[in-house]
């Protein structure tokens, strides 16, 4: 397998064509030479291309869209995505770890006023090996969360993990902390918490209403969503989507701006 060419800068802004639609999306190969451009793919609007074939997408206005990224082949198990809503003159979107971590993803939105909004995993995370990320996750989280790192394929969110659901080994993980909802409903912000974002966020972060706005108080004690904590600790600006209502108190990786010009999406391994 040939190696990807050396990069000059992480956020490569060269050769970005001006959008004819709303904005240009450019996909960056940041796999540290593990995959050449011919093996880094994107899928959007029913089309799949390698970035050797087509590194940019002229993004039209669309509602509740996703753009997927794949390494090795378009049907590879190494696949992840970003989410967005694109208006006629507006971009709203995010990276997400609500379901799982598969690929290292970061994105930077550049708009006509010169602003650059950047979210996702840090460059330090991109620079380390795939195995190192998994090893660090297992070392950083308590015993109840270690099994979420499934071999070297992905790190599953506890919200979708059977062990935290009824009948699972950790179904009562939050039972000593609250009776307001089941562990599964807390981690998934479902059931009685489906319409209570503030309460769900407080439970995942192990904080009270009194200190819910103090980020320094988050995840300081168990039980808490330590999967989410890990991604916040490894995210640009500490912002990540580790559970469905992680946008409470502006902690998620959501970005929004009018008059967008281009979006850079870094894909790593």
Automatic annotation (TrEMBL):
Coiled coil: none
Ranges of residues in domain GH64: 1-269
InterPro entries hit by this protein: Glyco_hydro_64, Glyco_hydro_64_fam, Osmotin/thaumatin-like_sf
UniProt superkingdom: Bacteria
Pfam families documented for this protein: Glyco_hydro_64
Gene3D superfamilies given in the database record: Thaumatin
Name of the protein: GH64 domain-containing protein
Organism: Paractinoplanes ferrugineus
């Amino acid at each position: 397998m040939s190696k990807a060419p050396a990069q000059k800068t992480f956020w490569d802004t060269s050769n970005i064509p001006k959008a004819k639609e709303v904005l240009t999306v450019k996909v960056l190969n940041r796999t540290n030479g593990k995959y050449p451009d011919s093996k880094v793919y994107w899928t959007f609007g029913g089309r799949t291309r390698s970035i050797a074939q087509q590194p940019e997408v002229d993004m039209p206005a669309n509602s509740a869209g996703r753009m997927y990224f794949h390494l090795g082949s378009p049907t590879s198990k190494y696949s992840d995505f970003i989410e967005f809503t694109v208006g006629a003159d507006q971009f709203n979107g995010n990276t997400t770890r609500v379901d799982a971590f598969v690929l290292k993803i970061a994105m930077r939105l550049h708009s006509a006023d010169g602003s650059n909004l950047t979210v996702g995993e840090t460059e330090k995370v991109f620079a380390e090996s795939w195995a190192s990320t998994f090893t660090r996750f297992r070392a950083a989280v308590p015993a109840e969360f270690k099994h979420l790192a499934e071999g070297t394929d992905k790190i599953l969110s506890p919200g979708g993990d059977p062990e935290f659901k009824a009948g699972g080994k950790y179904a009562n993980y939050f039972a000593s902390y609250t009776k307001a909802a089941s562990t599964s409903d807390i981690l998934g912000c479902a059931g009685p918490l489906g319409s209570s974002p503030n309460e769900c966020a407080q439970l995942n972060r192990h904080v009270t209403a009194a200190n819910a706005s103090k980020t320094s108080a988050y995840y300081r004690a168990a039980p808490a969503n330590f999967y989410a904590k890990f991604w916040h600790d490894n995210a640009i600006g500490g912002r990540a989507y580790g559970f469905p209502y992680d946008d409470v108190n502006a902690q998620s990786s959501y970005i929004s701006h009018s008059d967008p010009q281009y979006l850079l999406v870094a894909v790593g391994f």
